[in-house]
Write a structure and sequence with these properties.
The structure holds two protein chains of two kinds. By secondary structure, chain A is mainly α. Chain A starts with a helix and ends in a 6-residue tail after the last helix. Chain A is globular and about 70 Å long. Chain B is of the alpha+beta class. Chain B has two domains: about 230 residues, P-loop containing nucleotide triphosphate hydrolases (Rossmann fold, 3-Layer(aba) Sandwich); about 110 residues, OB fold (Dihydrolipoamide Acetyltransferase, E2P). In chain B, strands 11, 12, 13, 14, 15, 16, 17, 18, 19 and 20 form a ten-stranded antiparallel beta sheet that branches. Chain B has a six-stranded mixed beta sheet with strand order 6-7-8-3-9-10, with helices on both faces. A four-stranded antiparallel beta sheet of chain B has the order 2-1-4-5, covered by helices on one side. In chain B, helix 3 packs across helix 4 and helix 3 runs parallel beside helix 5. Chain B is elongated. Classes of the chains: A mainly alpha, B alpha+beta. Chains A and B meet through helix 8 and helix 9 of A and strand 6 and helix 3 of B.
């Protein structure tokens, strides 16, 4: 029986060759990016570098591009933190109180978020201009608002898994609402809060449209907009700089992905308090 | 001396009345059990005493002081929850010491108090563990430790054994009884299990639909139940209750048209009796129809080894008898169920107990 399932050597070689070709096709943009970023004389074509250099990375990590990297960090970090705090404060009453039409409210928030964000750029821009928020603070606010509906929905479901008896036990021992949140609910929600933070961070880090719309100078741009603006900025396209810049741009997203992956399993499974 | 008094206590959830007018007096040091079927308001009453539910009307006095609007901490009450509600992210030490931490006690004071409690509950070796690393019994002890560390006047238990399997439940029950004997803290314990109530309580309050139907010692509840509800609730298998109307010649007729003979009961009692109750263990299968008793058809026999439970039918009415002797009858056979009429319970038209 099992002998029939064994492959001949010719078969497994051809399978491996096929798979290798597939990998090359899949990875070619990424390998082009890698090879170009360390090539001292990048041409824009697909070429294996004859010598290695990290100068492009040094250039990408200095001057305006460094500034843009820091802008991205600032925007993503602030939006993620603000989203997490506001979502936690909003989701807790949604989970614990008997609010009329609770689910309708929650799902209509989510519906608003499902609408394409491009559809609201004009009101967002006009509002931003009227309120004097066409700056980094404004971008953080808009990205926070965009992230909040799903964050509230997810956190509400997460809080639902924490038995109210735990808070009642705390209340019996003299805990105020704030102490109950600080010592019982939030520590038990660490995984859920982490998931929300990472998701908001990634989404803000990746965001192009709203920073592009609301920021006016390359000193204020985050990396997503900076990368776009750097195309052909100095007459000829500097491929070495652009590829190094792109790789740096992807790095935090990849790091966050791995951190998220670790938390995602516990994050959505709830607390799992055993009786 | 009464440490806790409920006077005309009332609880409404919006338009729904759960407890109408409840009075209760708990004596210091007593193990008081609130027992009743689900939905009878026992847990609501406990939560009102705890301070987890607002009191709609009436007065709750603790140590003679009005406690209606006091925070749970100020009532000198602590509570052990059904699930124990241990904080899963804290160690045993932090679980027990949490209340003291909230009071702003110093680290040394907390550690000292926690160690003292842990010693009495044999938890010293587990202080660094998380609740998930403990057995069911250890978790219960941690929950108790958390309840006693602030030296409360009263401990409340909300069905703490109902999540456990049968074997563990018996063990935990014994632990709780020992704990109460050693510490003598006033305890109010809620359960729906009458066996738990009878075995553990000094006094039992039987609740039905938000009213206390009887509040007394287990012995009194068992021997002289005040009404048919208590009669049927206390005791297992439950008491046989017959709706009856008096006939002549010391015979009463049941709602199912069978006759119960009661030759040595006064005619006055028989004419007042609306419900007659007889416990299964007081019914005896007789070959001859002599003395008090009734005829019934054997429906099913459960042999439990040391005893047999015999299910019979008198008309449509189910009757249960319990025998410690070998049962000599066939299914389908009509037998005479005799009983000592002094063991029978008589209730009048107001559900009141009639004295003989």
């Amino acid at each position: 029986m099992t002998a029939n399932l064994k492959k001949s050597p010719a078969q497994s070689v051809s399978t491996n060759v096929l798979l290798a070709m597939l990998i090359i096709v899949w990875l070619s943009p990424l390998s082009w990016l890698m090879m170009t970023s360390v090539n001292p004389n990048p041409s824009g074509g697909f070429a294996v570098p004859t010598s290695l250099t990290f100068d492009h990375f040094l250039t990408a990590m200095s001057g305006t591009s460094l500034r843009q990297f820091l802008n991205s960090l600032l925007i993503a970090f602030s939006a993620a933190t603000l989203t997490t705090i506001l979502a936690a404060l909003a989701a807790y009453p949604f989970s614990r109180l008997n609010i009329p039409y609770k689910n309708t409210i929650l799902w209509s928030l989510a519906l608003l978020r499902i609408l394409p964000s491009t559809a609201i750029i004009i009101p967002v821009f006009l509002t931003g201009r009227a309120l004097g928020l066409l700056n980094t603070g404004g971008v953080v606010l808009v990205l926070t608002l965009m992230n909040l509906p799903f964050a509230i929905l997810l956190l509400k479901n997460f809080f639902d898994t924490i038995p109210p008896e735990l808070e009642e036990a705390g209340y019996m021992e003299g805990a105020t609402l704030r102490q109950g949140l600080m010592y019982i609910v939030l520590p038990l929600s660490r995984a859920g809060l982490a998931v929300i933070w990472f998701m908001a961070f990634t989404s803000a880090w990746n965001e192009f449209l709203f920073p592009f719309l609301m920021l006016r100078s390359d000193q204020a741009f985050p990396m997503a907009v900076g990368l776009y603006a750097a195309f052909g900025q100095y007459g000829a396209t500097d491929y070495g700089f652009l590829t190094a810049y792109s790789i740096i741009y992807t790095a935090p997203a990849i790091a966050v992905y791995f951190m998220l992956k670790r938390n995602l399993t516990t994050g959505f499974a709830g607390v799992g308090v055993k009786g | 001396m009464a440490i806790l008094e409920a006077k005309h206590l009332r609880k409404d959830y919006q338009a729904v009345n759960v407890i109408a007018d409840l009075n209760l007096e708990v004596r210091e040091g007593d193990f008081t059990v609130l027992v009743g079927p689900s939905g009878c308001g026992k847990s609501t009453l406990l939560r009102m005493i705890a301070g987890l539910e607002d009191i709609t009307g009436g007065e709750l006095l603790i140590d003679g002081r009005r406690a209606n609007d006091l925070h749970p901490r100020e009532r000198g009450i602590s509570m052990v929850f059904q699930s124990y509600a241990l904080y899963p992210h804290m160690s045993v030490h932090d679980n027990i010491g949490f209340g003291l931490k909230l009071e702003g006690k110093s680290k040394q004071d907390i550690t000292k108090a926690v160690r003292e409690v842990a010693d009495t509950l044999q938890l010293t070796d587990y202080l660094d563990r998380k609740p998930s690393q403990l057995s069911g019994g250890q978790r219960q002890r941690v929950a108790i430790g958390r309840a006693i560390v602030r030296k409360p006047r009263i401990i409340l238990f909300d069905e703490p054994l109902s999540n456990l399997d049968a074997k563990l439940r018996v063990e935990m029950r014994m632990e709780l009884m020992k704990f109460h004997r050693n510490h003598n803290i006033t305890t109010i314990y809620v359960t729906h299990d009458q066996v738990e109530a009878i075995t553990m309580a000094d006094r039992i309050a039987v609740l039905e639909k938000g009213n206390i139907r009887q509040f007394d010692t287990p012995r009194v509840l068992f021997d002289t139940p005040a009404n048919p509800f208590v009669a049927s609730f206390i005791g297992s298998p439950q008491m046989n209750l017959f709706d009856v109307t008096a006939q002549n010649n010391y015979v009463v007729k049941t709602a199912e048209n069978s006759e119960i003979r009661l030759p040595d009961v006064s005619l006055a009692l028989l004419s007042d009796a609306k419900v007659i109750g007889i416990r299964p263990e007081h019914l005896k299968l007789q070959s001859e129809a002599t003395g008090a008793g009734l005829s019934a058809k054997v429906d099913l026999i459960e042999n439990l080894g040391d005893e047999s439970i015999i299910h019979l039918l008198a008309g449509e009415q189910r009757i249960t008898a319990r025998s410690h002797e070998p049962v000599d009858c066939q299914i389908g056979e009509t037998v005479f169920l005799g009983f000592d009429s002094t063991r029978a319970h008589f209730f009048g038209d107001q559900q009141n107990r009639l004295s003989r």
